[in-house]
Amino acid sequence: MIGDMQSWTPNVAGIIEHAKKVHPKTEIISRLVSGEIHRSNYEEVCIRSRKLASVLIKDGYKEGDVLATLALNTYRHLEMYYGISGMGAITHTLNFRLHPEQAVYIINHAEDKIIFVETPFIPILEAIQDQIPTVEKFIVLCEENELPETSLKNAISYEEYIMDGDENYSWPTLKDDAACGLCYTSGTTGNPKGVLYSHKSNIIHAQAALTAMTISPDDSILMVVPLFHVLAWGIPYFGPMLGLKLVMPGMQMEGEPLYELIEKEDITLAFGVPTIWMGLLAYCRENNKILSSVKNTIIGGSALSLATLQEFDEVHDVNVIHAWGMTEMSPMGTTNIPTPEMENMSKEEKYAIQLKQGRPIYGVELKVVDDAGNELPHDGESQGHLLVRGPWILQKYFKSDKDAVDSNGWFDTGDISVLDEDGYMTIKDRAKDVIKSGGEWISSIDLENAAFGHPEVAEACVVGIPHPKWDERPMLFIVTNSGEPIEKQSIIDFLSDKVAKWWLPDEIIFLKELPHGATGKLQKFELREEYNNHYMEK
Ligand code: ADP
Predict the structure, then answer these.
(1) Contact call for residues 86 and 49 (beta carbons, < 8 A)
(2) How far apart are CA 180 and CA 12, in angstroms?
(3) Whether residue 521 has its Cβ less than 6 Å from ligand 1
(4) Could you give the residue ranges of the DSSP H alpha helices within 459-499?
(5) pLDDT tens-digit series, residues 383-439
(6) Which of 322, 326, 398, 521 to mutate to test the pocket of ligand 1 (most atoms within 8 A of CB)?
(7) CA distance linking residue 40 with residue 499, whole number of Å
(8) Å from CA of 525 to ligand 1 middle
(9) What is 323-354 written as a DSSP string?
(10) Which atom of ligand 1 is nearest to the CA of 192?
(11) Which of 58, 60, 54 is nearest to 113 (CA)?
(12) How far, CA to CA in Å, does 515 sit from each of 110, 478, 525, 527?
C-alpha cells in the first residue's frame, strides 16, 4: 500500500524561496575582490536568482545544460547556485587553483556552455579559451562599468546580464531525480572524475547535516569552505533553510583579514579546513588576539591535529567539531558533536574523542573491510578499507557507464579506518598513503600529527618511501616556524614517547614549503616521486 501523503518534486530553489519568506532580512555578507564589504540578504539573493534564471531561459539555455562558475565565495556565487540549478540547468563549480590542462579536461568533459568568471580569473580562461569549444559565452562577475578589457568570447558583466531579468519568475517543476550540481574530484591519480548531484540528494543532505552539527538559528557563519568545492559542505543550502547569517571572505583567506571579519561580523560558527585555521591561529598567536565571538568551529577535509584542537580550546575557548566526508558524498559523512558524557571527562579523554572523525550522520552507513572484502569488527583496533552507502553518496561518476559501487551499493572511499563500539570512525590514512613497513601499517596521519605538536614545527608531512629491507619506511618532511632546519634529533626525541619505535622516520627533510593541491591538501605523490630512490640508494 502506498502512503497517502502529498508527492514532492524537489527543486533547491524552494530553499531560497523559503528563506525569502521567513528570513528576508537576514544578512549575506561578502568581501568583494576589491576588498570592500558587500551586504545583501536572503530576499535580495532570491529575487536576483529569479532574475538570473529568467534571463538564462530567454537566452536559450534549458534544463540539463551545464553552466560553470569560476568564482569566489560571494553573494553572486550563491545566486548562481539557485538561479542556474533552479531553472533546471546544472551548476558546475570550477576550482581556480586547477592546473590549466586539468581545467581544459574538466570543461570539455562537462561540456560547459557558459562560464561565470570572477575578474581575477579572467587570464586563466583567456589562456585556454581556444581549447574549450563548447563554451559560448563568459559572464564576468562585476558591475557593468567594471567589465575589464578581455578577449573572452561574448563577455558581458553579470549585472548587465541579469538587469532585465524577471523578478517574479516562478521556478519549474523538475523531474524527481533531476541533476542539480556538478563537482569534480581533484584527480591526484588519473583524470578528475565528475560527481553529478541531484536536487533531491542536495536537499536531503542539507537537512541531515543540520541534525549533525551544533547549529542554532542565531548563528553567524564564517564560510571559509569554498563554494567551488563539494557544495561548500552544504552550507549554501542549509544556511537559507535555517536562516543563518552567512559571511563570505572572498579572496582574502589569510589570518589577518579573516580575524577582522570574524570580529566585525560577530562570527559564532566557522567552517574550514585545517590549513586555513593554522594561518588564523598563527596570526592570533603572534598578535595576542582572541577569537572572542566564536563558539564552535567545524573542521574537515584533512585530519585535525591535537595542537590545533588544544589551541582552539585552551586559548580561544572555541569548541572544535571534527567532520569527515568527500566529494562523492556531497560531502558530509561523519561529525563529532559533543555528547553529555564528554562534559564529565578529563581534557585528555575529551580530546582523544574529538580527534576521531566522528559518528555517521543518519542516512550514511559505514563499514570497514579487509583486503578480501570481509567486514571487520567495530573494536577500535581493526583497520581496513572504509566503505559507505546512502542517499547522498554517488552511484556512478558523471558520464561513466558503470557503477562506482558494488552490487550492494557500497562505495569504497579509499580511506583506511577503524570503527569502535560507540560508533566513532577514525581515519588512519588514505589507502594510497598508508606506509607498509615490514608487513605492518604505519599511519602517516598519526605520525604527522605527532610531529606537528613539536613547538618549532609549522607543518609536517609523512610519506612512505620504498626501502630494500622493509618494503617502505616513513620519511618526514617539515616546515619549521622560522623556515630554517633545526636539530633532527630534537624531532626524534619529541616523537619517541608518542609513537612506536618502529614508526620513527628514517629520514627528516626540511623544506621551505610543502606541496599543496587545488583544495589545500598535501600532494604527497610529488614528494614520493622526488624521493622515491632515497632509501634504495643508501
Ligand atoms: P579529493 O578531491 O582530494 O578527493 P575530497 O574533498 O573529496 O577531495 O577529499 C576527501 C578525502 O579527504 C577523504 O576521503 C579523506 O581521505 C580526506 N578527509 C576529509 N576529511 C577528513 C578528516 N576530517 N580527517 C582526515 N581525512 C579527511
Answers:
(1) yes
(2) 8
(3) yes
(4) 488-496
(5) 999 999 999 999 999 999 999 999 999 999 999 999 999 999 999 999 889 999 988
(6) 326
(7) 50
(8) 15
(9) EEE-GGGSSEEEE----GGGGGS-HHHHHHHH
(10) 2
(11) 60
(12) 28, 12, 9, 8
Task: Report pLDDT digits (tens) over 219-235.
Answer: 999 999 999 999 999 99
Q: Which amino acid is at 408?
A: N
Distance CA 72, CA 391 (A): 28
Grid coordinates representing 20 are: 525569502
Strand-pair partners of 196: 182
Q: What letter would DSSP give residue 121?
A: G
Per the CB < 8 A criterion, the answer to whether 318 and 291 are in contact is yes
| Residue 445 in grid coordinates | 596521519
Q: Is 333 in the pocket of ligand 1 (CB under 6 A)?
A: no
Taking the C-alpha atoms of residue 126 and residue 123, their distance in angstroms, rounded to an integer, is: 5
pLDDT at 335: 98
- Indicate the range of 123-132, 290-299, 371-380, 448-457 predicted with least confidence: 448-457
pLDDT at residue 188 tops 70 = no
Strand partners, 115: 68, 138
Residue whose C-alpha is closest to residue 290's, from 269, 314, 306: 314
494: left (phi over 0), alpha (psi -120 to 50) or beta: alpha
Structural domains in the chain, CATH included, are 13-252 (3.40.50.12780), 435-530 (3.30.300.30)
Q: Any idea which residues carry the catalytic annotation?
A: 185, 328, 436, 441
Residue having the nearest C-alpha atom to atom 27 of ligand 1 = 302
Confidence label for 317 from pLDDT (cuts 50, 70 and 90): very high
